Give the backbone structure.
Amino acid sequence: MAGAKLFLAAAVGAAVLLLAAGCGGGGGTTGAQTTTSTTTTTAATATTTTTASGPAPSKAEYVSQMKVIGQSLSTSLNTLGAAKTAATAATALAKVQTDLRSAADKLAAITPPDAIKTQHGQLVKAVRDFADELDPVIKSLRAGTMTALASVPTLKGLTEIQTASTAISNKGYKIGG
């Protein structure tokens, strides 16, 4: 059992490090951003989309803003690695999920430079998707199944975060820690 916990901690640790690196892991300062919200309603669902407005930040400002978001996520993600029981892991992962959703909102509030507008949008979507994909993992942990953590590194949203982050980095925006 101790070996399984160590494996799970390593797997989850790898997943969360990937996420923190994807959004930046260092410190920095952030400038104020202006946001507007639009609401689209259909017969079946209501969707709220937050979009950034105003001028795009410089390359250095963008990287700095991304690293601040990454640092806040990194702090949250570190608590998950310390979880020793399914119950504490469920609590920690639920906090991570809340922080991921907050990070996605902060990412959406950034007006990205034109050169990476598409990739930045993909990153925002991937962070939201990853947060949503944690629901069944949290449910399993609450039911006492510690091995549910092993699925976290395999979630599609995490792969999408890696893909979008790499694409942003390949365009010269080094947002990783």
In short: The CA atoms of residues 53 and 62 lie 14 Å apart. Residues 117-142 form the longest helix (26 residues). The helical segments are 2-22, 59-81, 86-108, 117-142, 156-170. The two ends are 33 Å apart (CA to CA).
